[in-house]
């Protein structure tokens, strides 16, 4: 068990690696749970501000209705094809709706940073376009797990 834990620490991303990775990646998978315990997983675009992951979700989605009843959420961002290339991050905790739902673009200072980051990342724009169907969910994770199997390559690999 100790060898597994040591390997887990070796493949864990540093805070700087995590921030860079989340800034570069474009798609995450979001898991929610229904009142009767059925899981739901769907893909979303996201942005990371260094503290929270921000999800721009359609307010008429199953995800949105499930989170109104139970805010527990898990988000996975990962990539890699070969085993030695696998890397990713799992963030878990409770989601909170931020701003009006659906979002129309009314001034809301807490959304200034995520909207600027999201608009640049996905639309190549300085300001966020609003379609009146989406709204913001913020996950400030209670737990973060990361892995980067590329760190096992080379002379220090077991």
TrEMBL record:
A single GO cellular-component term on record: cytosol
An MF annotation (GO) of this entry: oxidoreductase activity, acting on the CH-CH group of donors
InterPro entries, sorted: F420H2_bilvrd_red/Heme_oxyg, Pyridox_Oxase_N, Split_barrel_FMN-bd
What Gene3D superfamilies does the database record attribute to this sequence? Electron Transport, Fmn-binding Protein, Chain A (2.30.110.10)
Domain Pyridoxamine 5'-phosphate oxidase N-terminal, chain residue ranges per copy = 16-147
Q: Which UniProt keywords apply?
A: Oxidoreductase
Specify the protein name: Pyridoxamine 5-phosphate oxidase
Q: Does the keyword Manganese apply?
A: no
Q: Name one Pfam family in it.
A: PNPOx_N
